[in-house]
Amino acid sequence: MNTQYLFITVVAMGLVTFVLRALPFMAGKFLRQHVFVKKLGDNLPLAIMCLLLLDALYGQSLNNSHNIWQELLAAVVVIVFQLRTRQPLLSILAGTVLYVLLRSIP
Amino acid sequence: MPRSKTTHPSPSLLNLTTPVAMGYIPLGAVFGFLFIQAEGPWWLAIFASLWIYAGAAQYMMIPMLVAELSVGTIALATFIINLRHIFYGLSLLNTLPKKWWQRSYCMFALTDETYSVLTALPPEVRTQKMTLLAFLNQSWWVLGTLIGIILGAQAKLDIAGMDFVLAALFAVLAVEQWRANRDFTPIWIAIIAYLVAIFIMPSHALLLAIAISLFISILRPQTLQDTHA
C-alpha cells in the first residue's frame, strides 16, 4: 500500500472526526435553539448506527454464497450478548467466532 | 435528573477509567491486529489511534484502505460514522475545562465511552476530572493498539469472516445508543429507509438511506420524554 495515500487518509479522517466532536462547542448556541436539532439528536444516532449495521451485514453477505441468514444470525448473537452483558469485547467475539464458524461450513 | 449526587462523594479517577480500560485495551488490540494483518505499516496504526481515536471509523478504514478507495470516500464514511458526536457535546456545553489546550484535547477525545462516563458525573466534578480521564482513556486505546500490532506481527491468519468485527462493533454501538433512550422508532426508521434505498439505488443504498432517515426524523413529532438535559 502506498504510504503517502495511507497517511493522508488517516490525517483526513482525524480532521473530520475532530470537527464533528468540536462542532457543538463552537456552534452550541445555534444548535440548541433549533427544535430540529433536538429531533435529529433523538433519532439520528441510533438510526445511523442501525443503517451502518444493516449495510455492513448486506455488504458482508455479498461475499458469502449463502444468503444473508448467517450474517443476521451472528448479528442477533452480538445484540443479545450486548443487551445482557454490556461487555463489548465479549459480544463482538461471540458474534465473530460464530460467524467464522458458519462461514467454514461448506 | 440528580442521579449521582445521592450516595458517593466523588468516584476516583481509577474507578472511572478502569471499565473503559477493560474495553479499550482489547478493542484497540483488535484494531492493531487487523491493521497489521492487512499489511499496513505498524507506525500508522499507532498514528491512527493517536490522531483519529475513533474505534468504529478505525475498524472501517482497514478494508477501505485495502480496496484503495479515494480519500474523499473514506472521509465521507468517517463523517457518517462519527456524525453522532455532534449531539454528544451539546450536553457537556458548559462543563469543559477553561484552559485552551485542555478544552481542545477534551473535545478531540470525546469518544462514546468517555462521554458516557462524563455524563454520569455531577457537573462540578466533571470539569475537574475531564482532561485526565480523557487522556487515560486514550492511553488504553493506544496501548491496546500496540499489543495488537505485536500479536498481529507474529503470524498471518487467513480466516474467512474475521472482518465481521466491524458489523459486530456497529451492533454493540447500536445497542448502547438504544439503551440511552429506549426508543424503538429510530430502528424502524432505519430498517424502512434501508429497504427503500436498496430497492431504489442499490449502489448508494447507505447514503440514500441516511437521507431518508434524516427526513423522517425531522418530520417525526417531538418525543415526550427528555432524557439528558
Short description:
The complex is a heterodimer of chains A (106) and B (229). Chain A has 106 residues and is mainly alpha-helical. Helix content of chain A is 87%, strand content 0%.
Features:
heterodimer, A: 106 residues, mainly alpha, 2 domains, 0% strand, B: 229 residues, disordered N terminus
How would you characterize this protein structure?
The complex is a heterodimer of chains A (106) and B (229). In chain A, 87% of the residues lie in helices and 0% in strands. Chain A is mainly alpha-helical and 106 residues long. Chain A has two domains: 1-33; 37-106, no CATH class. In chain A, α3 crosses α4 (69-85) and α4 runs antiparallel to α5 (88-104). The longest helix of chain A is centred in the middle third of the chain and has 28 residues, at 35-62. Chain A is extended. Chain B is an all-alpha fold and 229 residues long. Chain B is 70% helix and 0% strand. Chain B has eleven helices and no strands. The radius of gyration of chain B is 19 Å and the shape is globular. The model of chain B is unreliable at 1-7 (pLDDT under 50). At the A-B interface, α1, α2, α3, α4 and α5 of A face α1, α2, α3, α4 and α5 of B.
Biggest sheet character of chain B: none
Instruction: Bin the strand percentage of chain A.
Output: under 5%
Q: Name the largest protein-protein interface in this structure.
A: A-B, 68 and 88 residues
The mean pLDDT of chain A is 91
Radius of gyration of chain B: 19 Å
Structural class of chain B: mainly alpha
- Gap between N and C termini of chain A: 32 Å
Kindly report the average pLDDT value of chain B.
89
